[in-house]
Structures are given as C-alpha cells and as structure tokens.
C-alpha cells in the first residue's frame, strides 16, 4: 500500500513537471 502511494505521488509530480504545473498534496479545507 505504501509503495503504491509513493509511486502515485512520484508519477503525479513527474507528469506535473512535464506540463509546467505545480502538484500540491496539501489537504484542502
């Protein structure tokens, strides 16, 4: 479970970099 979460975050940030956006995992109110 933890590995999948880590890989998901990694891919999120990698794809966000490709599109020039900032991926934030901060909880939204």
UniProtKB/TrEMBL annotation:
Domain GS catalytic stretches: 1-29
PROSITE patterns for this protein: GS_CATALYTIC (PS51987)
GO molecular function, one term: glutamine synthetase activity
Coiled-coil residues: none
InterPro entries: Gln_synth/guanido_kin_cat_dom, Gln_synth_cat_dom
UniProt record similarity statement: Belongs to the glutamine synthetase family.
Protein name: GS catalytic domain-containing protein
Taxonomic classification: Eukaryota, Metazoa, Ecdysozoa, Nematoda, Chromadorea
């Amino acid at each position: 479970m933890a590995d999948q979460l880590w890989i998901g975050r990694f891919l999120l940030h990698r794809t966000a970099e490709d599109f020039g956006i900032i991926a934030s995992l901060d909880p939204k109110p």
